[in-house]
Amino acid sequence: MACENALQQLLARSICFSANRLRDAMEYGLLNGGKRLRGSLVLAAARMVTGDTVDNNQALRTAAAIECLHAYSLIHDDLPAMDNANTRRGKPSCHKVFGEATAILAGDALQTMAFDILADSKTHDDATIRVQLIGQLAKSSGLEGMAGGQMLDLEAEGRSFGLVETKEMQMMKTGALITCAVLSGGIVAGANSSLLSAQASFAKNLGLAFQIADDLLDYKGDATLLGKPAGQDALRGKAGFVALMGHQGAAVEAKRLIDDANMILEPWKRSAEYMQSLAKFAIIRKT
Q1: Which of 174, 185, 222, 226 is the most exposed, having the fewest neighbouring CB atoms within 10 Å of its CB?
Q2: Following CA atoms 105, 110, 112, 118 in sequence, which dihedral angle do they give, to the nearest 10 degrees?
Q3: Span between the terminal Cα atoms of the chain, in Å
Q4: What is the mean pLDDT of the chain?
C-alpha cells in the first residue's frame, strides 16, 4: 500500500496537460494492480540495514522507480511484436486500450521516469548513492539484463534451449531486475559490503525460483486468478523450466532455491525475516 501511494503521488506530479493521453496510458500500465514484489524487496532489503526505522522516503522512492521500470517492461512485453498478449492482470493490455503507438510511448516514459526518480536528490542527498542506484538499474534493464533476456526469449521460440541457456536467459530477463531491487534497497539504506554480497546471492536464487514459479503457473495455473490465459509459453514454443525439468522437478527446484536463498540471510536473523517471507511467497503465489 505504501508503494502504491508513492507511485500515485509521483505520477500525479508528472501531469502534462498537452499529453494527457500518454499520462493516462502510463497510469493504466502502472496502477493496474500487481504484487509489487520488486518494490517490497527494496523495502525489505533496506529494513535489513535500518530495522523498523527505515527511511520511508528514500526506500519508497527507490521502490517506486523500480516498479516504474517493471511496468514499462510489462507494457512492452504485451505488444504484438513481443508476446502479443491481449490481457494483463485481468484487464485489456495497455495497447488494446490506447493503441500500440501510445503504449510504446507509455513504456518509454515510465522507463525514463524511473531514472528521473533515482536522479532526484529527494531519493538520497548523496550523489554517489544516486549514481550507484542509477547504474544498478541501467545495467539490470539493458543489454546485460532485462532487454537482453527478452531478446533471448524471443530467439527461444525458434530453436530449442537447454537448461543452462534457459537459466541464463531467465537470470537476465527476470532475475536481473529482482537482483536490482534487493541491491538497491541495501544501497539506499547504506548496507555494508558483507550484507550487499549476501543480498546479491539471495537475489540470484530468488530470481530463478520466481521464474520457475511463473512457469509452473503458466503450465497449471488458474487463468482467472492469473488475469491472463495460461499455457501461452507452450503454445509459443518458449523455453521453460517445466518443459525441461517436468512439473514435479521444477517445483522441487524452486523450493530448493528458496531454502538456499533464505539460509544465506540466516546470520541477519530477525532483520531478515521480512525478506525471507517474501522469498517464500514467491513460490506459493497464485498469480
Answers
A1: 222
A2: 170
A3: 18
A4: 90
> Which of 75-79, 158-162, 183-187, 191-195 is predicted least confidently?
158-162
For 125, counting Cβ atoms within 10 Å of its Cβ (0-12 exposed, 13-18 middle, 19+ buried), the class is: exposed
The predicted-structure confidence for 141-163, as pLDDT tens digits, reads as follows 999 999 999 999 988 887 888 99
Angstrom distance (rounded) from CA 197 to CA 207: 15
**Amino acid in position 225:** L
Report DSSP letters for 4-68, one per residue: HHHHHHHHHTT--GGGHHHHHHHHHHHSS----HHHHHHHHHHHHHHGGG--HHHHHHHHHHHHH
Q: How many beta carbons lie within 10 A of that of residue 251, not counting itself? A: 18
Superfamily classification of domain 2-284? Farnesyl Diphosphate Synthase (1.10.600.10)
Q: Which amino acid would we find at residue 252?
A: V
Q: What is the mean pLDDT of residues 77-81?
A: 95
Contacts with 169 (C-beta within 8 Å, 6 or more apart), sequence order: 149, 152, 153, 156, 161, 239
**DSSP letter assigned to residue 108:** H
What pTM was computed for the model? 0.92
